[in-house]
Design brief:
alpha+beta; 39 strands
Amino acid sequence: MTSEHAAPQPERRPQERTFHGDTVQDPYEWLRDKEDPAVIAHLEAENAYADARTAHLAGLRETLVGEFVGHTQETDLSVPVRRGDWWYITRTTEGQDYPAFTRIPDAADVPRGPGGVPQIAPGELLPGEQVILDAQAEAQGHEFFSLGGLRPSPRHDLLAYAVDVAGDERFALIVKDLATGEILDDAVTGIGYGLAFSTDQEWLFYARVDDAWRQHQIWRHRIGSSAQEDVLVIEESDERFTIGFETSRDRSTLVIQAGSTTTSEGWLLDLADPTSAPVPAGGRRAGVEYALEHAGDHLLVVHNDGHEGFVLATAPLEDPAAWTTILAAAEGERFESVDAFAAAAVLELRSGGLASVRVIPRAGAAAGTAGTAGTASAEPWDVAAAWDISHGGELDSVWLVENPNWDQTAVRYQLTSLLTPATVAEAGFATGERTVLRVTPVPHYDPELYVEKRLWATAEDGTRIPLSVAMRREVEADGTNPGYLYGYGSYEVSIDPSFVATRLSLLDRGVVLAIAHVRGGGEMGRAWYEQGKLQAKRSTFSDFVAAGRHLVDAGWVAPDRLSAEGRSAGGLLMGAAANLAPETFRAIIAGVPFVDALTTILDPSLPLTVGEWEEWGDPLHDPEVYAYMKSYTPYENVRAVEYPAIFASTSLNDTRVFFVEPAKWIARLRETVTSDQSERPIVFRCEMVAGHGGRSGRYAKWDQRADELAWLLDQIGATELI
């Protein structure tokens, strides 16, 4: 490599931190200050180096983008969703990064398809169809654009939406008159997630974040007034908790919930009396988590008080803390949430390692498919008539999609797997009959060319770790194939097998694609999460290594051709796995990686830190937690051995994981590892105008993904189609 392409190595500036009698030298902490011109210059040098090290892949990047586009119906639309007397639609158009949001009246002359849903052709507006928001036009002049909410008013004559043009997930609130197109209000800025109208449409509720980007306040804004006149509705003072809200399905109530990792609290606010105070609904008890659902004349509650897998309970509106169990999760199940309708309650749960949906009719309603046994029952829900939505595939995931109407006679859901494109369907409450509304079109895709399966690895403590795996049908377990293993493993987040069109570019090059469902995630229930957090966190990393080794030992992947990827907390997993077993992986993509976790969790002024203490432990006050985290944090544990090739990416405006974490990590890797970095490069990209999700706009995202995958395919010798 010529000197002009030498890897950037930032200056070492002496800086110490001392906790619990332990002093650590951190010569790269100065990179945290993005107002420092030297920091920006270093990031730009890193981007230039990444360009130079990947210049030979320009043709492959172009080919991959062509494949991504070729597997996408660029001019397309969503399944229409009925709200009141309107059907709302999202449309995409070839050549445009952002969608248009439209609606059409629920009139008798609208052509109908399955389920009575309007039958609409991509790219053709029906007579009377109205564009309520053109995101492509809104994004003009902005390098980054993201919508943080989109909410029609109760009378459907106003639209409230939230816009972020920096990537820092702090939004500007805009209210638009849908009859005239006039912007009625843009006074409120710097808000978080969530929008709700009062019944009379005079008020909007929104959330604010504090300096640590903790959503901590709910505010009320009178439309058309100054933001200085806004009223604080409720504030969450405990730094472990965040607060948010939803509108009940019958649109009568604002359901407010605060939560930490282990504890919840709820309130109800009458939207017909928007200036009233929130009414407590369930209280706060340490270690008790619950989610409230307004069910008309009572509440439904999913909670874990006395049951690890959670239970579904009812509570009267006048005494919302008086929970009566309807159904308890069976062994191996985990109840996650419930949606209430006039005709049924619908549970989202995990069962057998997969996402599932269970329908519980109201007492006296006709039963659907006979099904799952429960424990106790309580009026008005007929637990004995409960039934599950299932399509029978080994890796099928089923979860609810938008179901906004109280009076629905069917529930809408999505079915997917690694090889099943997103399929939107509905199931009738009374009959259980399934109706497919739409299968996402995937041009140039033949599912018969591929196979998917569930494999099981054995962790170092004997626990069986599930893997979801897909490959071309002709691929054999002969020990020669390239492989790709994805993982996350934190916050009880489940990485369910789902169809991602860009993965076809891996499969079509003979790559064996796998997701490791490691502990710390929620795939196998609450115990699975508990076994991978706090002082058990290292099991997340060893599970992932075990999954990779299983792919090799079983012959599915060649020992020198296994790659891995994780993002955010999954990026922590990548760094920890690389330290733990660098010989296992040939190349790693670490996206917005949380690789300097100890430094972050020691600083309560940083975004999310205090709330994270229930996930990772509190190293600031507990020396045992400090020592345990220091033993696995990637930045602290880079070793002088041969490492995989590393591709790290971040964004300058990311609020969740600061850009400094991968910047420091890459600097330490380059100065420490013994790898031949001409053969196993360590590259780092920083998007200078973006956030946690990277670039905005679908074409920019495809370019970014092609950059990552071209590098990875080159490293594992899989650049050619099979």
